[in-house]
Design goal:
The complex is a heterodimer of chains A (164) and B (376). Chain A is mainly α and 164 residues long. Chain A contains six helices and no strands. Chain A folds into two domains: 1-80, Up-down Bundle (Four Helix Bundle (Hemerythrin (Met), subunit A)), CATH 1.20.120.1200; 126-164. In chain A, α2 runs antiparallel to α3. The chains are: A mainly alpha (164), B mainly alpha (376).
C-alpha cells in the first residue's frame, strides 16, 4: 500500500475518533478541545490534497480563532454540571445520521468507478490561483460572504452596545 | 534519500539548538540587564566551585537543575492531563515557527544546493500565523486546567489579547507581501537583496539618486508596517507592557500561577523562544533576513561600482552571521523595552490593538497599493 494511503487512513481514523469524542465526552472543555484536534486533522487532509493554503487557513481561522472564542465563552459560563440527556435531540440526531448515511450509500452504490487520478499542476492550490479565482470567477459569492460577515459584525456591535 | 533526510534533520537540529540556547542565554541577559537598569547587582548567587564570575555558565546550569528538582504540583481539583498538555503546547508552538524562517541563502556542496531554511513551503507567512494562533491554547488550557480564579482570569485576558493583536499583525505584513509578491519567507529575504533604485521607474531620477543606494529592506519600504508589526509581536509574546495575562501585581502570576518545576520551566523557555522567533520574523520581513548590504552570491558589489569577490563559503558564513547578529539585536531590544516601560491597563491594550494598530495597518495597505500602482 502507498505511504500516502496509509497516512490518509491513519488521519481519517483519528478524525473519526476525535469527532466521536466531541459528541460523547462529558466535560464541555474536553469536547471543545477534541473539536480543535478534529479541525487540525482536517487541515492535514487538505495538505494531503495539495491545498496547503486551505490547510493553513483552516488552522488559522477554525482551530486558532473560532475555537478560542468557543473556549472563551465556555470558560466564562463555566458549566460545572453536565447537561441532562435529552431524548428529543437523540431523535433529531438519528434523523440527520440516517439522511447522511442514505446519501452516502446512494453516492457509493451508483456503480461509477473513480477516474484515474491526474497529477495536479504546480499552481493548483497556490495563493495566486486562489486569489485569481476568488476575484474573477467567484467574485459575487465572495462579496456576498463578506457582506454577510459585515452584517454579523454590525449586529454584534448593536447587541453589545444596547442600552440596558 | 537518506542523505536528503539527514540534511533536513541536521538543519532542524541546528535551528532548534540555536533557538533553545539563545532562549537560555536570554534568560540570563534579562536578569543581568534588569539589574543594570535598576542599579542593583543581579543574578550573582549561582556559583559553581566558587567561580561566581562565570555568571552565564553557572546560571545556565543552575536554572534548569533547580526547576527540574522542584516538586511538580498539580491542583487537586484541576485537570491533570490538560495541566500537563498546556506547557507542551506553549513550548511546541514557540519552537516550530522557526522552521520556515531562512537563516541563509543557499549552501553549494559539490553539485548539491542546500537551501538554508528547514522547511521551504510556499505559504510560509500563513504557516507562521496558523501556528501563532494555536499558541493561545497553551495559556487557555493551562489557565483552565489549574482550577484557579487568578489563572482563569489570566487565561481569558491572554486569549482576548492574542486574538486581537493577531489581526493587526496579519494586516501589517500585507504591504510587504504586496511589494515582494510572495508568501514565502526565503523569497522575501532574497527580494530584499536588490537596491531601491532597481524598484523605482526611470522618471523618478531625483529619488533614485537620493535613496537609490539603500538596500530594498522592508524597513525602508514599509517603515509604518515595521512599527505596527513589532508592537503586535511584543503583544503576542505577552511581555511588559503587554503582560496583562500574567500581571503579577493583580493576578499573582496569571495563567501559570499553579505551575511549578519542569512545567513552569517549559512556559518560561517558551516565552524566551517566542522572543527569539519574534526577532527572527522582524529580521526576515523588515531587515533583509540574512542579507548583508551589497553582498551578492559571489562577493560585494558596491553601488559606486567597486567589487570585492569572496569565496562561496565566506559569503555563506557572512550571511548566517549577519542573520544571527540581527536576531540577537532584536532580542536585546525587546528585553530593553520590557524594562523601560510600565504595564498598560487592559482597556488601553484593547484600544491600542483595535482602534490604533488595526486602522493604521489598513491604511498602510491602501497607501502601499496606491504607491505600487503609481510606480508601475
Amino acid at each position: 500500500m502507498d505511504a500516502s494511503v496509509i497516512l490518509f487512513y491513519a488521519v481519517s481514523a483519528l478524525l473519526v475518533l476525535t469527532s466521536l469524542m466531541v459528541v460523547f465526552l462529558r466535560n464541555v472543555v474536553h469536547c471543545a478541545l477534541a473539536l480543535v484536534a478534529a479541525l487540525f486533522l482536517i487541515a492535514i487532509l487538505f495538505l494531503m490534497l495539495q491545498a496547503p493554503m486551505l490547510g493553513a487557513l483552516q488552522v488559522l481561522v477554525y482551530a486558532g480563532a473560532i475555537m478560542v472564542l468557543f473556549l472563551f465563552v465556555i470558560m466564562f459560563l463555566n458549566p460545572t454540571n453536565p447537561e441532562p440527556r435529552r431524548t428529543l435531540w437523540w431523535g433529531f440526531g438519528l434523523l440527520a445520521a440516517l439522511l447522511l448515511a442514505g446519501s452516502l450509500a446512494a453516492l457509493l452504490s451508483n456503480g461509477e468507478t473513480l477516474a484515474d487520478s491526474v497529477p495536479a499542476n504546480e499552481a493548483f492550490g497556490s495563493p495566486e490561483m486562489l486569489g485569481k479565482s476568488l476575484f474573477t470567477d467567484f467574485v459575487l459569492p465572495f462579496e456576498i460572504a463578506s457582506v454577510l460577515l459585515l452584517v454579523a459584525i454590525v449586529g454584534a456591535v448593536v447587541l453589545a452596545k444596547r442600552e440596558p | 534519500m537518506i542523505l536528503d533526510i539527514s540534511i533536513v534533520a541536521a538543519k532542524a537540529f541546528l535551528v532548534l539548538f540555536m533557538v533553545l540556547n539563545l532562549a537560555g542565554i536570554l534568560g540570563w541577559i534579562e536578569r543581568k540587564g534588569s539589574a543594570l537598569i535598576q542599579d542593583r547587582i543581579g543574578a550573582n548567587r549561582a556559583s559553581i566551585f566558587g567561580l561566581a564570575g562565570m555568571g552565564l555558565v553557572n546560571t545556565l546550569i543552575a536554572d534548569p537543575l533547580k526547576f527540574l528538582t522542584k516538586e511538580d504540583f498539580v491542583p487537586p481539583q484541576g485537570d491533570r492531563f490538560l495541566h500537563t498538555l498546556a506547557p507542551c503546547m506553549a513550548l511546541f508552538t514557540a519552537l516550530v515557527t522557526f522552521a520556515v524562517i531562512p537563516f541563509g541563502d543557499v549552501l553549494v556542496v559539490g553539485d548539491r544546493v542546500i537551501n538554508l531554511q528547514v522547511a521551504n513551503i510556499n505559504i510560509g507567512i500563513l504557516y507562521i500565523f496558523a501556528i501563532a494562533s494555536l499558541g493561545v491554547y497553551g495559556i487557555v488550557i493551562g489557565a483552565w486546567a489549574s482550577n484557579n480564579k487568578f489563572s482563569l482570569l489570566g487565561g481569558v485576558r491572554g486569549s482576548a489579547q492574542m486574538i486581537s493583536y493577531e489581526v493587526a499583525m496579519g494586516l501589517s505584513v500585507i504591504g510587504i507581501l504586496m511589494i515582494f509578491g510572495t508568501l514565502e519567507l526565503q523569497e522575501i529575504a532574497r527580494g530584499q537583496g536588490t537596491l531601491i533604485r532597481d524598484l523605482l521607474p526611470e522618471s523618478a531620477s531625483f529619488l533614485k539618486s537620493a535613496i537609490g543606494w539603500l538596500p530594498a529592506w522592508g524597513i525602508f519600504l514599509q517603515p509604518v508596517a515595521f512599527l505596527l508589526f513589532f508592537t503586535a509581536a511584543i503583544a503576542e509574546t505577552k511581555r511588559i507592557p503587554f503582560d496583562l495575562p500574567e500581571g503579577e501585581s493583580e493576578l499573582v502570576a496569571g495563567y501559570h500561577v499553579e505551575y511549578s518545576g519542569g512545567k513552569f520551566l517549559m512556559f518560561f523557555a517558551g516565552e524566551f523562544a517566542e522572543i527569539v522567533t519574534a526577532a527572527g520574523l522582524v529580521t526576515t520581513l523588515f531587515f533583509g533576513g540574512w542579507q548583508v548590504p551589497y553582498l551578492m552570491r559571489d562577493g560585494f558589489h558596491f553601488p559606486w561600482g567597486e567589487t570585492v569577490l569572496l569565496p562561496h563559503l565566506g559569503v555563506v558564513l557572512l550571511q548566517v552571521g549577519a542573520f544571527i547578529v540581527k536576531v540577537v539585536f532584536f532580542c536585546w531590544l525587546q528585553i530593553l523595552l520590557r524594562w523601560s516601560v510600565p504595564r498598560f491597563r487592559y482597556d488601553q491594550v484593547m484600544r491600542l490593538g483595535w482602534k490604533m494598530l488595526l486602522p493604521l495597518a489598513l491604511l498602510n495597505v491602501v497607501v502601499t497599493a496606491i504607491v505600487i500602482i503609481a510606480v508601475q
